[in-house]
Amino acid sequence: MITIPIIEELVLTSKFLLPKNSKEKEAFIKEAALIFKSLNTSNLLNHESLEQVVNSLAARVEQAWNANARRVNITKHSKKWWNEDCNHSLNKYRESRSLEDWKSFIRTVKITKRSFFDIKIQEVSNKSYGP
Fold it and tell me: Which of 44, 62, 77 is the last residue of a domain?
């Protein structure tokens, strides 16, 4: 018999993100740009002053991130193609439990998947110059 020690590993079940093409993403980008514009680099005379400016920059960008990002739970059902339309459609079905809302949800998922994977296929074909 052999005993193999296994190190306990922390598995993240949530993360912070900025949804694509969202108001939050636009706000974060604007705030980050303002932070960089207002950065005072005139007194960078030594290593300590550089360290101070970099730490200040990091803290301000992190603050902007925390103000705009939202927490998302990672599940076995998390998909890259899933978007707000899918969420809205699924929530509508869950509230009504009607067959018509279920069909609408399925249509939304199909359309979303198709557009997502069409873009991915286009990216691969453009990158490798072939199918």
Answer: 77
8 A C-beta contact, residue 24 and residue 69: yes
Whether residue 85 is found in the same domain as residue 72: no
Unique residue bearing structure tokens 């603050």: 63
pTM over 0.90, yes/no: no
Q: How many domains, in total, are found in the chain? A: 2
- Reference 58, options 88, 91, 36; nearest CA is 36
Residue 67 resides in a domain: yes
Q: Are 49 and 89 in contact (CB under 8 A)?
A: no
Q: What is the extent of the structural domain holding 88?
A: 79-131
Among residues 61, 69, 66, 77, the alpha carbon closest in space to that of 22 is found at 69
Taking only the tens place, the pLDDT of each residue in 9-38 is: 666 667 888 887 889 899 999 999 999 999
